[in-house]
Amino acid sequence: MNGTFTYSNPTRLHFGPDSLDSLASELQNFGPSVLLTYGKQSIKKSGLYDKIIAILQAAGKSVTEDPGVMPNPTVEKLAEGVERARSCKADLILAVGGGSVCDYAKAVAVATHCPEDAWEKYYVRMEPLANPVIPVGCVLTMAGTGSEMNGGSVITNHAAKRKIGRVFDDRVYPRFSILNPELTLTLPRYQMVAGCFDIMSHILEQYLSGTDDNTSDYIAEGLMRSLITASRAAAIDPQNYEARSNIMWTATWALNTLIAKGKTTDWMVHMMGQSVGAYTDATHGMTLAAVTLPYFRHILPYGLPKFKRYAVNVWGVSPAGKSDEETALAGLDAMKAWMQEIGLVLSLRELGATEEMLDGIAEGTFLLRGGYKPDLTKAEVRSILVQSM
Ligand code: NZQ
Ligand code: ZN
Which atom of ligand 1 is nearest the CA belonging to 39? Predict the structure, then answer.
């Protein structure tokens, strides 16, 4: 393990088919005013909305609704939520939905008592948190982002063509999250598999970095093997509870800071994916899927031992009779076959990207320095984007 670190995670999790029963006792920890935020329609269609309202009413809460959070939540929607949170003096923001709703709830939580423009201060300038934060609780309906147990909050500014993810500290983590895998059973297949790839990408962004023998990498390999098994089963039978519950649990552990402890991380796939998202508004997990293999092939020579280990330990590739490079590439072939099998999009064009956008997408990609390829440039990013078309 490298460096000195602190591990703490303040989010209490309630997992399983009866986990919504815990909402009533969680609500007792907060004041009377609840800002209930959710997406466009799924929770009303599934009947979850009625259950949540009944629990809030039975708890004697005064509820202000904040519906209509879109995938890839925008600065304009954030301003609307802040207005509502201020006018109802929210004691708790209850997010019911996927990662977008959870991320948005965190953004409203930090922006409501911020005297300045919170987008500029906390997302563009990445300044330290300097104002009170409203507590957030989540009832998760889509597995993927890990937002249910982390401080991440990704907001999109279409006018500025920027999609920026901020990782806040413990004060912004959800105080509690309710993870009932049954709530994910109504997800369209496209969203389900996009979520699976988001999980895989989170794990790989942390795994494919560093050269030391590190416990976090062994945990990552176990999570990936569970995810691959579960995603295959869920792709065949989306109603398979066992598979969906494993997907939900791997999502949470993929991005709650545990497997980044004591190591460096990469995150360039997410930087490219987010910039693609700023231009196309495409589904997050699909933007990652489209750029991953071209990026991995580009950096593979610089991280060959780890790519070989990934092939052998995660994909079961036999290294016998193969050079290290052949073994590593066979791992990427196995990964590609899995991606095709579960139905991921492997082309940016299919997500609405055009050649004319590529300069802007490359320019809008933040360059991080934890990956295997030293000094990655925007020109290399552009060439990876071209190969991802
Ligand atoms: O709006 P509704 O009608 O609820 O529909 C949603 C939405 O259209 C639907 N959905 C969610 N649960 C459902 C359901 N439909 C039927 N049944 C259900 N049970 O799914 C669609 C997508 O939802 P969304 O919340 O956008 O998906 P996801 O969880 O993938 O969140 C994506 C956002 O999270 C950010 C992404 O950038 C993106 O903005 N991320 C957040 C991270 C974090 N906080 O750490 C990290 C990630 O890397 C990611 O960047
Ligand atoms: Zn992600």
Answer: 1
* H helix intervals, the chain: 23-27, 42-46, 48-58, 75-88, 99-111, 118, 189-207, 215-236, 241-254, 268-280, 284-299, 304-315, 324-342, 358-363, 378-387
Residue reference for tokens 């933040």: 366
Distance 145 CA to ligand 2 centre (A): 5
pTM for the full predicted model: 0.98
Q: What is the mean pLDDT of residues 206-223?
A: 97
What is the average per-residue pLDDT within 171-198?
A: 98
Distance 96 CA to ligand 1 centre (A): 11
Whose atoms come closest to the Cα of 104: which ligand?
A: 1
Quick one: which atom of ligand 1 is closest to the CA of 147? 44
List all residues whose CB is within 6 A of at least one atom of ligand 1: 39-43, 71-72, 97-101, 103, 141-142, 144-147, 150, 152-154, 165, 183-184, 186-187, 191, 195, 198, 255, 270, 284-285
Average pLDDT over residues 125-144: 98
Encode pLDDT of 68-103 as tens digits.
999 999 999 999 999 999 999 999 999 999 999 999
**pLDDT for res 294:** 98
Q: Which domains does the chain show, CATH number per domain?
A: 12-183 (3.40.50.1970), 190-388 (1.20.1090.10)
